[in-house]
C-alpha cells in the first residue's frame, strides 16, 4: 500500500481524506496544474491500467508557456555564446596588455551572468514541459473508476485545495 501512496506523491497527484489513504478504498485524484477540463476519457465502473489517461485539461496556455520558455532559452543561449566570445577576446587583450583589469573583470562578470540566465531559462523550460505533461491526469495504479466529479468546463485551481476530478479504487477492491 505504501508503494501506491509513494507513486501518487511522485506523480504529483493529490490524495485526500483523513487517516490512511487506502482506508476507504478509494483515491480522489486531481491535476497538479490549474486549468479547465477539456475532456474526460473515462466513466464510472470502467477498469483502467496504470498510466491510462483519465482526463485532459485545455493545454493552450500551457503550450504557450512552453513556447515562451523555449524562446527564452534560445535567447539566453545566444547571449551566453556572445558573452563567451567577448570573454575570450577580453582575456586575450588583457594577456597582451592591451586592455585593463576592469575590462577583463567586466567580461568575466558578463559571461557568468549569461551562464546564470541560461541555467534559469533551461529550468523554466523544464517546468513548462512538466506542467504541459501534467495537464493529462493519468491513473497512478490499476483500478476501477468509482466516480467522475470533473466534467468538461470544470475549472481546476491547483494552488487552492482543488476538488477531485476522478475517484479511483485500486483493482481487486
TrEMBL record:
Classification via InterPro entries: BSH_CzcB-like, RND_pump_MFP
This protein's UniProt keywords: Coiled coil, Signal
Key word ATP-binding present: no
Keyword Signal: yes
Signal peptide: 1-23
Coiled-coil ranges (or none): 59-93
Location of the CzcB-like barrel-sandwich hybrid domain: 27-159
Protein name per the record: Efflux RND transporter periplasmic adaptor subunit
Amino acid at each position: 500500500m505504501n508503494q501506491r501512496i509513494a507513486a501518487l506523491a511522485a506523480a504529483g497527484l493529490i490524495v485526500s481524506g483523513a487517516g490512511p489513504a487506502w482506508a476507504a478504498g478509494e483515491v480522489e485524484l486531481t491535476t497538479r496544474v490549474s486549468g479547465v477540463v477539456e475532456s474526460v476519457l473515462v466513466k464510472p465502473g470502467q477498469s483502467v491500467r496504470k498510466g491510462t489517461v483519465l482526463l485532459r485539461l485545455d493545454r493552450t496556455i500551457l503550450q504557450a508557456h512552453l513556447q515562451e520558455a523555449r524562446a527564452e532559452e534560445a535567447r539566453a543561449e545566444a547571449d551566453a555564446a556572445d558573452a563567451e566570445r567577448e570573454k575570450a577576446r577580453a582575456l586575450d587583450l588583457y594577456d597582451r596588455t592591451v586592455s585593463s583589469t576592469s575590462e577583463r573583470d567586466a567580461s568575466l562578470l558578463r559571461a557568468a551572468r549569461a551562464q546564470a540566465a541560461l541555467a534559469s531559462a533551461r529550468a523554466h523550460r523544464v517546468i513548462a514541459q512538466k506542467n504541459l505533461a501534467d495537464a493529462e491526469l493519468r491513473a497512478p495504479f490499476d483500478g476501477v473508476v468509482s466516480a467522475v466529479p470533473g466534467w468538461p468546463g470544470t475549472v481546476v485551481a491547483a494552488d487552492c485545495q482543488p476538488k477531485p476530478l476522478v475517484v479511483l479504487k485500486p483493482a481487486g477492491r
